[in-house]
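Example S7 (structure tokens).
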């Protein structure tokens, strides 16, 4: 679960900080835990990694074109 990964990465426990329940597709990161430049960089890297995972799965499933296919299609439409 992504929420658990981010909690481990930034060293916080959401259940101790907030009382509302998270849905399975939600990730909650309280601003107060992002209190250093290092944590911002960790968060940026984590989000980038998750985006690349999502993008590669979408490409494999045929929902999104990879860059090479996009460029080839654009050239053929000229």
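Recovered sequence:
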């Amino acid at each position: 679960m992504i929420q658990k990964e981010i909690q481990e990465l930034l060293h916080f426990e959401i259940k101790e900080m907030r009382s509302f329940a998270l849905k399975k597709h939600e990730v909650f990161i309280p601003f107060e835990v992002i209190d250093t430049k290092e944590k911002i960089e960790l968060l940026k890297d984590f989000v980038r990694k998750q985006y690349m995972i999502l993008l590669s799965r979408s490409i494999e499933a045929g929902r999104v074109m990879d860059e090479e296919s996009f460029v080839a299609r654009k050239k053929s439409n000229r």
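Notes on this example. The two ends are 44 Å apart (CA to CA).
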